[in-house]
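Tokenised fold entry reproduced for absentees:

. . .
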Amino acid sequence: MLRAIIFDLGGVVIPFDFRRGYAAMEPLCAYPAAEIPKRIRSTDLVHRYETGQIGSEPFVDELSRLLDLRVTFDQFCALWTAIFLPGSLLPESLFERLRPRYRLIALSNTNEIHYRHARANYPALGHFDDLVLSYQAGCAKPDRRIYGQAVSKARCRAEECLFIDDVEAYVEGARSAGLEAIRFDGYPQLEGYLQDRGIL
């Protein structure tokens, strides 16, 4: 029997577009927007930040050097959170319908700056009973350990959890850890799945 539903945040609850962040950085750094993600991917900097291996200020310092970006910490935070779009990909009514019957958990690969912004700007986060955030967990999807932390927060067995994510590799990681899991492809698809399963 299903007892908990575990939601990814970015791309499932919270809309975002990385290109907005790169475009915001472009006038303030030495590289065009198209080059910025390539330079970032050439290092493990974001992974270290999103798994809590470095804090926000060292991360900002390292990334600013990498991109020759000359901004204050607060200016950087504004650029780094420019990826987020207004609104939610899921209606709050969905969480209101689910919460009386299921424990709701958020499981996200994220970092302190992004999460602080999300918490302040997306009321949907208030519907979750608990959260597992990679930068606090010390590991990130699809690492089996982070699914274990989410199951622990769900207070039930892995097979009693449904996991929803827009990234197929993370869905497969959840299945490997024993959870029921589906790839998110928009609210109509998810609502149909939940109705077919008798969850709604």
User: Anything to note?
Assistant: The radius of gyration is 18 Å. The chain has two domains: 4-16+87-196, 18-80. The longest helix spans residues 56-67.
